[in-house]
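tool_call predict_complex ligand=manganese (II) ion
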Amino acid sequence: MAEIALKQYLENGDIDEGLVSVILDLSSVFEKIAQSFKTVDTGKAGSQNVYGEEQKVLDVLSNDLFEDYMRKNQYVGLIASEELDGEIKVDGSPYAVCSDPLDGSSLIDVNLSVGTIVGIYKTDTFIGSKGRDQLASVVGVYGPRTTILLTAKKGVHEFTLRDGQFFLSKENLKVVEGKMFAPGNLRACKYRQDYTDLLNFWVKEQYTLRYSGGMVPDINQIILKGKGIFSYPGYEDYPDGKLRLLFECAPMALLMEQAGGAASDGINKILDKELSSIEQRSPIFIGSKAEVARCEEYLSRT
Ligand code: AHG
Ligand code: MN
Ligand code: MN
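tool_result ok
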């Protein structure tokens, strides 16, 4: 059977031409970011982002690629990124595109997998929006292969880069039940008995540990293997944890729900949370439905 290229897949998929154009531009951004890993310095840029986090050269370059492509796309009127301050209006309409251009950049110097996370909305401000308003979410995964996980709210599909083009490699990915866990922020166990109890449950039930330290490869793995749970709770002075609702949690949650899984902050669905600030963070428990329900049950015990 002939292989299906991303462009062809989108054009046959009854998706608005503007959205197709934005997704294709994003696939070019991913391709260029993947290429840059081969040549660009893995070290620090000597600057900080708006969160006071030290930027890597590749954080800056990935953001520049995202920003350039989105500014030039006639269908994009608003952009936001983890590496930019606030939201930025640009010349175009009607789409609003937000990104963590390089998630897991601290893993680059040790050659672990990293990714780019993107959410696409139709709005003139992200403030007040909910993850459920996303029209699509697109995630680039840079491992031994470069892949894309895509949902335009018609299931989740994987595309693989080969000879400068992305081809459909897996269609309609589904997450069901199975014992695999990726427990983030275990520092919380010092202060949270509920998270410690949950962790003990997974260990005693002999779940398989699969944790890379990168949210993108960890969640990509759950979606591809079709089972498991990823967690990143907060504690004490950081009750909302580290991960950002707009740039990281909401796009990954849309993929997971579209794959038949769930995503919660411990109480509410991630996709139902209204964004009050661009920088907003959220705890996240994301994976199969039963695993997310178990997290909610354990975390409401204390
Ligand atoms: P960043 O975009 O700043 O590189 O964040 C990486 C994230 C995520 O990918 C991962 O799951 C988490 O940080 C790990 O955080 P710890 O620092 O707590 O290990
Ligand atoms: Mn990140
Ligand atoms: Mn980042």
